[in-house]
């Protein structure tokens, strides 16, 4: 009997659904745009008929502010026109791919930059969680880039490599879900796991060793275990400084050689500290990643590359399989350049007071872009195909050295001297000199937000990306727990974004041309973040100061145009709140999220723009300030209780305190006028705004008036803000009398 031949369609590896709210969103977009146009039209007619200088100035201010708000609303609409959600079917992988031997190799990059702000023990935890993926070990290579050039970090990794040989088989045998040791011991009782107590003791011992070395700041001889280690640490001679040192590449685990305690092969683990020299700019994280691209090309050259920040540990051992569900799908488009998983965080307080989750940036907006050409790259949790770093999908632009080509097959073992020599060469500071690394190849240079710039550039070249948001977070990271740190991080992003806006790759002009108008708008939404400052400042000060002087700037309550304002304000807020809550947020988190949007508009967006301008003028620049991941216990307690942390006398707090005082004074004036029986008809809109301002400023009043802890508002900020408020009131008085 001859066998019957059937053509079986392979089972699906992933499915995509367009969210049901799409039609509603589109209809709403038409209605809301009509309302916006009506308002702008009204402003223009008022401007044409204005008779005094003061009204001309205020109308122009409102016109500009409302134009900015409208533009930003249009950009958010791009996320709402075709939002999608994706699902994967990991169980079908075996039927599509056959044996695990056919899984592709993956190179994992972890970046760290400072042993004092990013404790080596945390970096080690991230690395261990990634080494323990449920994936054939011989296919995984973990590279650690140490921009801090620190022997302390290398020491921690020697220890980690030893511990990994026990940790990895332990996780696999016990099917442990939390493979970051610190998280595992925190969340699980060890008694229910085979050897749990023993492993915990080993971990604690390692932790004590690493932390005592880090505390001391040097590695004394009793901590050095063998000649290999001695030879490695000898590189830190008297001339070795953080900003000036030769490349250090140390293979800590070699897959073909090292076995775990159960005799299975280990993944590769390689420490890389690229050469630093004062003669060459190092281009921050993008420079570190490009070095890793080259070093990994020479050693392993896996077709898939995962980039990870040192504080972002893996929270799900199945993530690589999930990623494969896309890359192994025969129907997936050949121009798919990267798969972005959302950045999620651990240790967020319940109300998320600093909106550190960045739900819109990391979850909602990428889901919206997924239905277009795909999400932005956000720096961590992103799986690239190596080819995306070398030209467009149809036109590769390759480096001179054949060993760096994405299709190059590595045949020699990674400890081979020839291989290592070449790796050192490509990690040298001068290697990129006169090359196009950072422009046509690799991660982009020229912006402090190298992630945003790199993704944008790849999309403009015709690559697509994809967003996958699994229920169990794939990665969990640390977040800033003081307002100062949160704003500082945001300020740095703003500088980076403005660098993109003022480059050739402006998302609106250049981007729209090459990616289509909707993608152009979506990218613009982030890129133009700093201009939120304009309307936020206007609406935080102008109506309030006018109220203090009894001048009406909005229509009377009985006027139909008042309804237009009410509609525009409330409906935008309601839509924003719905979006947020549909993405599993609570109402309280949303309230804090909108407050942080205002706070950023008043501080970090403004200060970022100022610093960007200063940098442009060539005066000074602070560069990439790494966010501190060190935990202060008192601060941490206040954070867990949802208390705002001011503490340091930063100029970024001045506008916040000033707005809080101005709104309070305006609201109090309004109430007094009302109690006095004055005619309030034209002032209700302003009263409403001042009241909203007061409600939002509540944590600021607390920090200014009745708190005594270290995180209260510094006196000097209160004094400056009070003086500023007085000055503004005088100005308001003069303006209203002109
Ligand atoms: O010269 C540098 C500076 C930073 N880093 C690393 O870059 C990562 C991000 O730095 P961090 O201080 O944590 O910045 P964040 O603002 O928290 O990071 C967000 O913003 C960055 C862009 O500004 C992106 O690169 C990150 O992926 C994204 O999570 C960390 O792992 C650092 O070790 C380097 O490797 N070299
Ligand atoms: Mn970070």
From TrEMBL:
Location (main, coarse): membrane
Keyword Transmembrane helix in annotation: yes
Transmembrane segments: 562-582, 653-672, 684-704, 716-735
Pfam families: Cellulose_synt
Localization, UniProt: Endomembrane system
InterPro entries in the record: Cellulose_synth, Nucleotide-diphossugar_trans
Gene Ontology terms, MF aspect: cellulose synthase (UDP-forming) activity
Active site: 147, 451
Binding sites annotated in the UniProt record for UDP-alpha-D-glucose: 117-118, 147
GO term, biological process aspect, one: cellulose biosynthetic process
Record keyword Transmembrane present: yes
Residues that coordinate or bind Mn(2+): 285, 309
Top-rank lineage group of the source organism: Eukaryota
This protein's UniProt keywords: Cell wall biogenesis/degradation, Glycosyltransferase, Membrane, Transferase, Transmembrane, Transmembrane helix
GO CC, any one term: endomembrane system
Membrane topology: Multi-pass membrane protein
Family matches, as Gene3D superfamilies: Spore Coat Polysaccharide Biosynthesis Protein SpsA, Chain A (3.90.550.10)
Name by which UniProt lists this protein: Cellulose synthase, nucleotide-diphospho-sugar transferase
């Amino acid at each position: 009997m001859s066998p019957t031949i059937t053509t079986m369609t392979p089972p699906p590896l992933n499915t995509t659904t367009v969210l049901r709210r799409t039609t509603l969103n589109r209809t709403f977009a038409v209605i809301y745009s009509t309302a916006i146009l009506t308002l702008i039209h009204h402003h223009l007619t008022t401007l044409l008929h204005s008779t005094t200088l003061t009204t001309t100035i205020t109308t122009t201010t409102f016109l500009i502010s409302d134009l900015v708000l409208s533009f930003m609303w249009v950009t958010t609409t791009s996320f709402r026109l075709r939002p999608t959600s994706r699902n994967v079917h990991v169980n079908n992988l075996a039927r599509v791919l056959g044996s695990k031997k056919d899984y592709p190799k993956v190179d994992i990059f972890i970046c760290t930059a400072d042993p004092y702000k990013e404790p080596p023990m945390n970096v080690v935890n991230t690395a261990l969680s990634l080494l323990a993926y449920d994936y054939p070990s011989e296919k995984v290579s973990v590279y650690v880039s140490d921009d801090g050039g620190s022997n302390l970090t290398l020491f921690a990794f020697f220890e980690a490599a030893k511990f990994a040989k026990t940790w990895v088989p332990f996780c696999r045998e016990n099917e442990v879900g939390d493979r970051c040791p610190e998280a595992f011991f925190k969340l699980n009782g060890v008694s229910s796991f085979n050897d749990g107590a023993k492993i915990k003791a080993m971990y604690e011992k390692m932790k004590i060793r690493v932390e005592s070395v880090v505390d001391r700041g040097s590695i004394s001889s009793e901590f050095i275990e063998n000649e290999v280690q001695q030879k490695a640490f000898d590189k830190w001679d008297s001339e070795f400084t953080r900003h000036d040192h030769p490349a250090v590449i140390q293979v800590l685990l070699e897959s073909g050689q090292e076995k775990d305690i159960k005799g299975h092969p280990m993944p590769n683990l390689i420490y890389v500290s690229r050469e630093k020299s004062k003669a060459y700019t190092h281009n921050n994280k993008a420079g570190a990643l490009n070095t890793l691209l080259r070093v990994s090309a020479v050693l392993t050259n896996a077709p898939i590359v995962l980039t990870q920040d040192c504080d972002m540990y893996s929270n799900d051992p199945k993530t690589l399989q999930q990623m494969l569900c896309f890359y192994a799908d025969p129907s997936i488009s050949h121009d798919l350049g990267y798969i972005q998983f959302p950045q999620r965080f651990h240790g967020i307080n319940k109300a998320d007071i600093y909106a550190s989750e960045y739900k819109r940036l990391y979850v909602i907006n990428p889901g919206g872009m997924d239905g277009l050409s795909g999400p932005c790259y956000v720096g961590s949790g992103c799986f690239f195909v190596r080819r995306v770093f070398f030209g467009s999908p149809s036109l590769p632009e390759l480096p001179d050295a054949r060993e760096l080509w994405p299709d190059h097959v590595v045949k020699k073992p990674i400890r081979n001297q020839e291989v290592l020599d070449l790796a050192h060469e490509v990690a040298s500071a001068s290697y990129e000199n006169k090359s196009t690394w950072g422009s046509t190849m690799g991660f982009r240079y020229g912006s402090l937000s190298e992630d945003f710039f790199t993704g944008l550039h790849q999309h403009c070249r015709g690559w697509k990306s994809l967003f996958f948001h699994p229920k169990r977070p794939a990665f969990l990271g640390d977040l800033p727990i003081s307002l100062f740190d949160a704003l500082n991080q945001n300020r740095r992003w703003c500088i980076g974004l403005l660098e993109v806006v003022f480059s050739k790759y402006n998302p609106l002009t250049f981007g729209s041309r090459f990616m289509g108008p909707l993608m152009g708008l979506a990218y613009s939404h982030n890129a133009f973040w700093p201009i939120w400052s304009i309307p936020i400042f206007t609406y935080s000060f102008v109506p309030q100061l006018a109220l203090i002087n009894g001048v009406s700037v909005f229509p009377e309550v009985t006027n139909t145009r008042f309804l237009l304002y009410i509609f525009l304000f409330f409906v935008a807020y309601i839509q924003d709140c719905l979006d947020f809550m549909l993405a599993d947020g609570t109402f309280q988190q949303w309230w804090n999220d909108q407050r942080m949007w205002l706070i950023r508009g008043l501080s970090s967006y403004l200060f970022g723009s100022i610093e960007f301008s200063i940098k442009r003028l060539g005066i000074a620049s602070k560069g990439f300030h790494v966010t501190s991941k060190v935990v202060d216990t008192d601060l941490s307690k206040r954070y867990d209780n949802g208390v705002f942390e001011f503490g340091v006398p930063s100029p970024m707090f001045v506008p916040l305190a000033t707005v809080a005082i101005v709104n309070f004074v305006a609201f109090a004036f309004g109430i007094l006028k009302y109690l006095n029986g004055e005619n309030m008809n034209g002032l209700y809109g302003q009263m409403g705004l001042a009241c909203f301002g007061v409600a939002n400023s509540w944590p600021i009043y607390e920090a200014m008036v009745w708190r005594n802890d270290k995180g209260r508002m510094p006196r000097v900020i209160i004094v400056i803000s009070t003086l500023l408020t007085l000055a503004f009131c005088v100005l308001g008085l003069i303006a209203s009398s002109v």
